[in-house]
């Protein structure tokens, strides 16, 4: 069954822009990305949108739908009533290039700042992982790098000035993954706190709420990482050891 839906889509570039109204056909089973493609095909051939897989796996099509950070390709039109106006805007935390496409290079810069896996003296084949350690890593590895979590986190969403100091939940999760990896020899607690802004996170859990992979970012990565940092800082023996250079 088809119907005509009311869409408002943000059109513009890094200088200026506005919401533009469209009325457009919707068919049964379609997702918001289908409608954006139909707009391109029929009414707005120059409408810019980033997408790739249309299967919720490439993380390209992040946007805000009625103010909620979501993947365009995984948001079914049946989520909305037929008389509802659906507003599609670019993710707010990153600068607009054009229309729905933003410059997400902030995230790649943050990714590069994280020291990679450090095997220490362990040789390949010498280490066996417990199943629970495998499962922990696997949860974090489900990340499709859509950056919706970084987009929604108030620490940088409302405070551009925090960007240099804060890596965002996606990359604090990456640090936690490495810190909790039993074969990683590096101590990541200081860099999490001092270089990547773990202390900015006040556990609002908005990141977890929007994650399309349903990763428990806050409970399974950020809170355990905060506990490790607190343990290091406030344990008097650890403190003394760090002063003597043996911890
Ligand atoms: Fe996207 Fe979730 Fe990965 Fe964040 S943790 S980038 S929300 S998949
Ligand atoms: Fe931000 Fe997530 Fe912490 S939204 S404040 S990183 S719990
Ligand atoms: Fe790949 Fe939406 S197009 S996640």
Give the biggest beta sheet.
5 strands, mixed
| Low-confidence blocks of residues | none
Tell me which ligands are bound: iron/sulfur cluster, FE3-S4 cluster, FE2/S2 (inorganic) cluster
Nearest-integer average pLDDT:
94
Strand content: 15-25%
The count of helical stretches stands at 10
Question: How many extended strands?
Answer: 7
> Span between N and C termini?
66 Å
| Fraction of residues in H or I helices | 25-40%
What strand order characterises the main sheet?
2-1-5-3-4
Order of helices and strands: EEHEEEEEHHHHHHHHH
CA gyration radius, whole angstroms: 21 Å
Could you explain how this protein is built, in words?
The relative contact order is 0.12. It is built from ten helices and seven strands. It starts with a strand and ends with a helix. The chain has 247 residues and is of the alpha+beta class. Helix 7 packs across helix 9 (217-234). The protein has a five-stranded mixed β-sheet. The chain has a two-stranded antiparallel sheet with strand order 6-7. The structure holds iron/sulfur cluster, FE3-S4 cluster (F3S) and FE2/S2 (inorganic) cluster (FES).
